[in-house]
Structure formats: C-alpha cells, structure tokens
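User: Could you go from structure to sequence for me? I need the amino acid at each position, not a summary. Structure tokens:
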C-alpha cells in the first residue's frame, strides 16, 4: 500500500510540475529524479524554482518556475560579491586609520587618539592586535587624552538586531559598522574548578567595558539534567553585562559559547584598551564617539585583506556581516561617502544595467540575503552566474564558492561527487533553502545550476534532496 501511495504521489507531483513548467516562458526539461525528490518531500511544485543553463550557448537545459521571484537566502551574496569584484577589482582594500590631536613627546600623547573606521569587513582580533602593535611602534606609550571612535564612514538607520529572529546576540545578526572589530563577538568558556568548588568563566577577548556576572553554582554528582544546565542572559540595553546562571557539575567538561556583545564602537574601544594595556601601553581616559576633527594628524593607516580574499571568506562560510560591508562599500565607492543602504542598492542596479544583466526586478535589500524582503528569480541568478563565469574575474569568483565535500558550507554535503566538480553557494532561512553555482558533468562540460525552494517544509530538510538530485542528474545525464 505504501509503495502504491508513493507512486500516486509521484505521478500527481510530476503532473503538477509539468503544468507549472508549461506556464513558464523559460521552460526546459524537468528531470525525473528531481520530480521524484519533490514528490518524496511533499513539496508543492509552486514552491520550487530551478534553472540549469548551458554555459556555452546560454540555453535552458532544465527549469521549473525559473522566472518566479523568490527569496534566495544567502545565495544573494553572489550578486553582491561579484558586483564588488567587477566594480572594485580583487585588489581593493579598506583602511583603518589612527589619528592624533595633540602633541607626542617622549612616548606621551598629550591629547586624543582617534580611531577612524573605513569599513574593513575582516578586522579580526588577531588583526586588531597587529593594529595596536603597529601603533605602539610609532612611539606612543601613554595616551593622555581620550580615545575617539569615528565610525562616520557608514550612515545607517537604527536597527534592532533581534528583529529578524529574536536572537540579537547571535553572530549572524551583527549589524555593520565602519569600525567593526572581531564581528563584535566574545567567546565565554566555562570550566568547573574542583579545587575552588566554583565555575570559572573566561572571556576572549575581554573588553575592559564588559561585565560578567557569574551566578553558576558548582554542584556534585553526574553531569546531566539540572547539573549540566547553564543559562545566558544579556541584562543591559548596551549589551555590556553578561549574566550566567544555573548549575554545573564538577564532572562536566569545559564548554563555550560565542555571543555578540556591546555596541560596535564600545567593542572597538574596549578591546583596543585591553590590547593596548597588554602591550605595555597606558591609558586612563574615556571613550567618545565623534567625527575626526579637521586638524587631526594621521599617524597610521592599517590596510585590510584584499577584496579577493574577503569574498572568498564571505562566500565559503556565508558571512552576513562581510557581505553587508561589501554591499555598503560598493555604494560609497560609486556615489561617495558615507555609505548607505540606498547607495548600495542603486550602485548594483546601475551596474547590472551597464552590464546588460536582466536584474531590474531584483530586490537586493542589504546584500547578504539575511532578509525577508530580498527577491530574485532562478533565471536572473543563473544569467548573472553565466556572465561571471565568462568574465575577467572568473578565477577569483569561482575560488570563493564552497566545494562539495571539500570546504565551506558544502564540506559535509554531496561528498560522493568528484572533487572540484561542484561549486555551489548555499542559502538557508526559515522556510527557504537554496543553492547556486556551477556543476561540471562527467562529459567535462560545466553548467550553471540555481535551485530555490520557498516552503515551510524546507525547514525539515526536504529541500536538500531536490538540490542533490539536480546535481546528480547534471553529472550523470549531461
């Protein structure tokens, strides 16, 4: 009975697929394995879109609802990163500047130190440490005035970082800032200490303006149930106080969580002072947030990774913040500072028009795909990807895509495919799963593949077999 029911479901789904495809102007072939995957997952044909393009001719080899606008989730990063490559070039860099207002005598700055952000998307803790030590090498030992944070390179409206999914302290929700350091993240490591019968909490980094309220009780017995539960709470509007509570058995192993803390300027200030003092520097002033005054003198300009390196990290690991910084930079480069969301969207729209790309209906929003408003069709994305593959920046762009079974977000997926034959950006949101990129068939020919599923059932993982079926079909049948 179950076998017959599955066959009936498959037949109904296949009929629906054919009907939906017939209504599309970009109809191609709907492979039987793909129809089977949709039917098995009980996904309505109207919830799915895919497009497979012949790289040489641009011919649509297979499609379903290819012209329907859908949420692409993080595959939208492909639009942002390729536009960035094409407009800025892979050698483009950002600069974080240190300026002084005052006099520097015998290692003492009698005045303010100004930290001016330029939008660097990848100022990690290690690079921030290098920035601090490069500044110390300029001969400053003591900062006699205040530290002024200048983040005016970006002009963004206020955002609620918890608006997307109610998790404001998760790293994927961190908001852009011109002086963004270490993705504004802190790792808290909790370790039961049998000698003191307490639970130690170590923060890395440990910004000087971050308070940790440790209420975790050390308990005896096995590490299970109530004796293994730790709760985390941010108890201040400025996110500068972390409260830990619960019970932890002495038999529990160390555990760690990473959360976004403070506000971006406060995080930059707090970590800078921490590293400054660790390096032997002295500072006893306060933080101010303001634009650098006209009479401030430049002391250090610290260069970022290149855009080519940045987009590789962005796409391989689907980093929302880095994509948003690239998006904002595109706008500022074309229309002038400060960077805004509107300038970013206009720059990509104008660029696509100049390149003859059919992206008029695309809603890029913030450039990362972490949005309920972003929209693009499978055909539009596929056309962009074909253009990118044939562009002068193809090597840099292709190198940024995750390799199935090898690295990035595809490291543990499609592991049976030939190494290097599948390069796909992945995307996931509640109710959305997507892949977009390139698949090389057994014949040696490469095809563009874009597959979007917008359906609540995709949260159960039923969309992944559809993407995999498309990859398998391309590699086996084309």
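Assistant: Here is the amino acid at each position, in order:
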């Amino acid at each position: 009975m179950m076998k017959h029911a599955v066959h009936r479901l498959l037949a109904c789904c296949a009929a629906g697929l054919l009907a939906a495809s017939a209504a599309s102007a970009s109809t191609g072939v709907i492979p039987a394995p793909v129809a089977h995957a949709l039917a098995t997952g009980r996904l309505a044909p109207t919830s799915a879109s895919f497009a497979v393009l012949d790289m040489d001719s641009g011919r649509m080899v297979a499609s379903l609802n290819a012209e329907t606008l859908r949420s692409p989730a993080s595959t939208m990063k492909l639009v942002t990163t390729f536009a960035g490559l094409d407009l800025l070039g892979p050698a483009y860099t950002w600069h974080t500047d240190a300026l002084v207002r005052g006099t520097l005598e015998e290692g003492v700055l009698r005045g303010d130190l100004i930290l001016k952000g330029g939008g660097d998307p990848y100022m990690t803790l290690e690079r921030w440490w290098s920035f601090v030590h490069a500044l110390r090498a300029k001969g400053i030992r003591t900062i006699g005035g205040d530290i002024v944070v200048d983040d005016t390179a970006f002009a963004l409206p206020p955002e609620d970082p918890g608006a997307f999914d109610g998790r404001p302290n998760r790293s994927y929700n961190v908001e852009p800032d011109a002086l963004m350091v270490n993705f504004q993240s802190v790792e808290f490591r909790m370790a039961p200490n049998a000698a003191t019968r307490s639970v130690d909490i170590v923060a890395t980094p440990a910004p000087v303006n971050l308070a940790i309220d440790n209420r975790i009780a050390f308990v005896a017995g096995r590490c299970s149930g109530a004796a293994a539960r730790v709760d985390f709470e941010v108890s201040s509007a400025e996110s500068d106080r972390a409260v830990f509570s619960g019970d932890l058995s002495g038999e529990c192993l160390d555990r760690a969580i990473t959360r976004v803390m403070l506000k971006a300027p406060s995080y930059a200030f707090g970590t800078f002072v921490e590293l400054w003092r660790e390096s032997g520097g002295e500072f006893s002033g306060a933080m101010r947030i303001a634009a650098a005054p006209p009479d401030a003198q430049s002391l250090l300009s610290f260069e970022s990774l290149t855009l080519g390196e940045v987009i590789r990290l962005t796409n391989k690991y689907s980093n929302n913040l880095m994509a948003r910084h690239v998006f904002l930079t595109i706008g500022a480069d074309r229309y002038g500072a400060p960077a805004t969301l509107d300038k970013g969207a206009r720059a990509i729209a104008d660029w696509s028009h100049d390149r003859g790309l059919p992206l008029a209906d695309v809603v890029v929003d913030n450039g990362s795909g972490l949005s309920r408003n972003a929209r693009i069709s499978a055909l539009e994305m596929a056309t962009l990807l074909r253009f990118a593959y044939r562009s002068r920046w193809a090597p840099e762009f292709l190198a940024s895509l995750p390799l199935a079974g090898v690295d990035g977000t595809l490291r543990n997926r499609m592991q049976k495919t030939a190494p290097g034959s599948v390069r796909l950006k992945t995307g996931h949101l509640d109710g959305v799963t997507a892949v977009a990129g390139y698949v090389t068939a057994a014949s040696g020919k490469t095809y563009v593949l874009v597959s979007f599923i917008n359906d609540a059932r995709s949260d159960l993982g039923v969309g992944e077999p559809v993407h995999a079926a498309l990859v398998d079909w391309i590699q086996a049948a084309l």
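One structural detail worth keeping in mind: The chain has two domains: 2-91+308-477, 94-304.
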